[in-house]
Write a structure and sequence with these properties.
H-NOX domain, 8 helices, alpha+beta, heme binding, 4 strands, Heme NO-binding domain-containing protein, H-NOX_domain_sf, single chain, Heme_NO-bd, NO_sig/Golgi_transp_ligand-bd
């Protein structure tokens, strides 16, 4: 997992819960990196899972809820650092439908060894999008948060439902409706 995911996560933890919480979740985890991350480095997903688990334990906030909040924070990073990608679209459905064939292509130009989830478009109309999310990591809630922020970015109301297609939540069907 790319280091920017870790550095931004720890920035969010500091912003929302304080520097003491950052220190607490790092020191109570068994991290190969010892909690030292660079935005361009690559780290094990297990470290992110440990940090999320420790944060959840210390805040009594479910991991999926933490991932959604983190996604909202990460969208602001995308907006600030990669605004060109957002400017290529005028509609949230079009943008979300292009994740696999355009956005992830651009991400791989910046981070060639990034392990990204896949998104298969099952249905697409001007007001509806049905996607299948597949990943070796159960981070669908992060995807949900990014989708919510995408609609907010375009000042468009939506409903987003999801169905876990397996117990591990590594395959999830998203049903996105523009209102």
């Amino acid at each position: 997992m790319k280091g920017i995911v870790f550095t931004e996560f720890l920035d969010l933890v500091e912003e929302k819960f304080g520097l003491e919480m950052v220190d607490k979740i790092i020191t109570s985890s068994n991290l190969k990196s010892e909690g030292i991350y660079t935005s361009v480095g690559t780290y094990e997903f297990s470290e992110m899972l440990q940090l999320l688990t420790k944060l959840s334990e210390n805040t009594n906030i479910a991991i999926d809820n933490l991932l959604q909040v983190y996604a909202e924070h990460f969208f602001s990073v995308i907006k600030r650092s990669y605004s060109g990608i957002l400017q290529m679209y005028s509609d949230p459905i079009e943008m979300l439908a292009s994740i696999e064939n355009h956005i992830h292509v651009e991400v791989r130009k910046i981070y060639p060894d990034a392990e990204l989830p896949t998104f298969q478009v099952l249905e697409k109309t001007p007001t509806k999008l049905v996607l299948i999310y597949k990943s070796s990591r159960a981070m669908h809630a992060f995807g949900l948060g990014l989708m919510n922020k995408t609609f907010e970015h375009f000042n468009t109301a939506s409903t987003i439902e999801f169905e876990k297609l397996n117990d591990a939540a590594t395959e999830v069907k998203f049903i996105v409706n523009k209102i």
